[in-house]
Amino acid sequence: MQHLVDTDQLSLRQIRAILDDTARFKAKLPPPLLQDRLLITLFFENSTRTRSSFEIAAKRLGAHVVHLDPGRSSTKKGETLEDTFANLCAMGPDGVIIRHSENDTPARLAEMEMVPVINAGAGSYAHPTQALLDLYTLYEWFEGDLAGRKVAIVGDIVNSRVAASDIRLFRRMGIEVSLVAPKPFMPPATDLPRYERIEEVLDDVDVIISLRAQLERHKKPIFDDYAEYAHHYCITEELLGDRGILIMHPGPVMRNIDISDEILDDPRCMVLDQVRNGVFVRMAVLKLLLLDS
Ligand code: ASP
């Protein structure tokens, strides 16, 4: 049984198959490969893009989707998450897509080996389909030529599961990653190049991935004044000039703190391309896990 807790569970061959299937599905929608399959989405944290993207991906492949609202589920009545999951599995779904605030929840449920578990974001640990769609966005833009591309990740890196998954996947694909953040947002132990100012990397990167401050994961407020933070870390026209740097962000974007209004409308900004690609990437992931594994 194949799960997707993070992309290190995928072989390079499987990652290439996801990139290829994504490109094929984007060029032409496939027939309903997952007709009558059933997926359950179980989101214990808020989501705009990921949940709807998975749902649309599943439906485009002909699968049914049932969404369990954890706020109304029996975990609220004292049932353990494992028991809730086992009960859902007893109803015969073909996969469960889960988002949770704890880093190890998807891994714990996957270990039960009841159905394929797909991690849709776990704590600050991993968000594998976001990393895959970020990778695909680069793969398409650079026409498959990824090795040696330079990506700077800017923002609240230490609390970001997107950064964690991007870093692991990108390095495996030969992409060079550097980190730009103020001290409280910088991971303490890393062998990646670290910078405190964006200006230090601007002339040497192909891509900037901007991240929002993960306020819900801060035990106490880290900055009182995000206007001051924005002054140093917001991606603006003034900062970029005419450099051909691609700007990415997993969303939700904190406008004029992460990225300025003008840059969000700039052709170098890939935010909506990432969202568009996300549906096709998730179709490819569902095909791989439910059909090809
Ligand atoms: N949407 C992404 C996530 O769920 C990024 C974020 O929330 O900042 O991790």
Word description of this protein:
- The chain has 2 domains: 7-125 and 275-292, 3-Layer(aba) Sandwich (Rossmann fold); 129-272, 3-Layer(aba) Sandwich (Rossmann fold), CATH 3.40.50.1370.
- The strands form 2 sheets. A 5-stranded parallel sheet has the order 7-6-5-8-9, covered by helices on one side. Strands 2-1-3-4 form a 4-stranded parallel sheet, with helices on both faces.
- The protein is globular and about 55 Å long.
- Helix 1 (12-27) crosses helix 10, helix 2 (49-60) packs across helix 10 and helix 5 (128-141) packs across helix 10.
- The mean pLDDT is 96.
- The protein has helices at 12-27, 49-60, 81-89, 105-111, 128-141, 161-172, 226-233, 237-240, 261-264, 271-292, and strands at residues 38-43, 64-68, 95-100, 117-122, 150-154, 176-180, 194-195, 207-210, 246-248.
- It has 293 residues and is an alpha/beta fold.
- Aspartic acid is lined by residues 121, 127, 161-162, 212, 250-251.
